[in-house]
Amino acid sequence: MPVSIGTKAPEFSLPGDGGTTVSLSDFVGKNVVLYFYPKDDTPGCTTEAKDFTALADAFGAANTVVIGMSKDTAAKHDKFIAKHNLSVLLASDESGAALEAYGVWVEKNMYGRKYMGIQRATFLIDSTGTIQEIWPKVKVKGHAAAVLERAENL
């Protein structure tokens, strides 16, 4: 990955849910969990978003904001949030610039077919914008709780 622990997190400013703009710089002074996921409303991505939502109060108590990012449109994010009552912020990176900057736009291989897609990964960014932890190739089960535990110890 082009970013690593101890480096500054790449800035982004992208369309967010509810007609907002989500920028990393908006959260200086707070820790940020930035998680990348392949697609709204698929089983793993829905579970991950619901798990982060279930722990929203605990993340808030740890001075931490949770942002999910995919290539889905902001309008699709709005539907995803409404359908599953999500409380995480969702950012839309249709151009893929932030995905590239974080190194999560990768070649995938399914049933022998190669294609480009989003590698499920999470970055914990501290209140100064420095990456403190990276979880590459995330397995969804138990992940949000593991991220919360690390965020509580920043």
What can you see in these coordinates?
It is a single chain. By secondary structure, the protein is of the alpha/beta class. The chain has a single domain, classed as Glutaredoxin, CATH 3.40.30.10. The chain has helices spanning 43-54, 56-61, 74-84, 97-101, 143-152; strands spanning 13-15, 21-23, 31-36, 64-70, 89-92, 105-110, 113-118, 121-125, 131-135. The strands form 3 sheets. Strands 5-4-3-8-9 form a 5-stranded mixed sheet. A hairpin with a 2-residue loop joins strand 6 and strand 7 (113-118). The longest helix has 12 residues, at 43-54. It is globular, with a radius of gyration of 14 Å. The mean pLDDT is 96.
